[in-house]
Design goal:
The complex is a heterodimer. By secondary structure, chain A is α/β, with parallel strands linked by helices. Chain A has a single domain (about 5-190), classed as 3-Layer(aba) Sandwich (Rossmann fold). Chain A is about 40% helix and about 15% strand. Chain A has 8 helices and 8 strands. In chain A, the strands form 2 sheets. A 6-stranded parallel β-sheet of chain A has the order 2-1-3-4-8-7, with helices on both faces. In chain A, helix 1 (about 5-15) packs parallel to helix 7. The longest helix of chain A is centred in the last third of the chain and has 19 residues, at about 170-190. By secondary structure, chain B is of the alpha/beta class. Chain B has a single domain (about 5-170), classed as Thiamin diphosphate (ThDP)-binding fold, Pyr/PP domains (Rossmann fold), CATH 3.40.50.970. Chain B contains 8 helices and 6 strands, in the order H-E-H-E-H-E-H-E-H-H-E-H-E-H. In chain B, strands 2-1-3-4-6-5 form a 6-stranded parallel β-sheet, with helices on both faces. Chain B is globular. The N and C termini of chain B lie close together (about 10 Å). The chains are: A alpha/beta, B alpha/beta. The interface between A and B is medium-sized, with 39 and 31 residues.
Amino acid sequence: MRRLEALEIVDRVFGDHPVVVTLGATSREMASLGQRPSHLYLLDSMGLAPAVGAGLALADQGPIAVVEGDGSLLMGLSVLPTLAYLDPPKLTLIVLDNHQHASAAGMPSQSQRVSIAELCKGAGLKTEVIADAARLEQALERHRDDTAMSVLVVEIEPGNAPDVQLLLEDPVRIAGRFADALAARGEGGGEDSS
Amino acid sequence: MTTAGKRYEALVQGLRDWQLEAFVYVPSSHVAPVIRGLDESGQPGFMANREDEAVGIAGGMVLGGRRAAVVMQDNGFGNALTALTTFAVAYHVGLPIIANTRGGLGEYNSMIHTFGEAVPSLLAAAGIKTERLGAAESPALWRSTACAVAEHAVMTHRPVVLLVDVMHPGSLDG
């Protein structure tokens, strides 16, 4: 499965529910599918997406998806026990694992030798490993509707989608429309939005 | 109650005056009385392992419409600078941060000043607004300043740091 294919599935299953997207090519590819106000693209905060998603979940904004990469998660690995300890509700952490820093010249990540899934399980997080698109869609639908936090480690192909534009939008605009989208959901606009 | 106790309580009361809804903290001995005070007053508290996590979690809460703050020690700004600048500052997250300082008068650790003394200038260089409280300020001023810093963070859509010196001998006695 290519990353863009996995992102299309996340976008379809989570619809207008909040999605926090990690930096680099992952954010660019997600935005290339058509930006949603409910998507928070973190343009440079490597390793921070799971923490931001946890804060949103603890503010009762779930269901929430966090799209993280293997390299980015490894940069902020201490968040795994924090997630297990805080147990934020209705949060699905999706780790797209291509075993490389695809946004950093394709250099290998440590997930070539270290299992992301075992790290997550070791922290006490409910973790599932997915390798094909059909199973990913089913698992996302299941976890989106689950009240507990869970992790999906998704095996994807290395590399980035070609010809995807840079995401040059002002972060202030991204955050503003994201907060507005959350507020609208809180007023009843977010039900059945997937 | 000791003067130090009054100042710790003033920080708790100041955040309560602001109507804090949640706080995220990194455990630290010299800010523990604030964490315990907030906890005992019924404020939901969430523990993080690192200060960048705390900024991310509290920042997510703010984007989700909550009045949230971070409580930490100043040497954790070394962990938090990238999260502060690329997330909280860049995305205009109105986030108050209460941080006890280390390395000044009354310090017992022989090396922590090497970072603590640089914190105000590091934050200034990163464009992060900072206010300071010490032994010269009364507990009443600590309380009103804590509330005002939180209001200012929200009003100006950015993280604002309140550095509090709780180790100065004058903060402990008198």
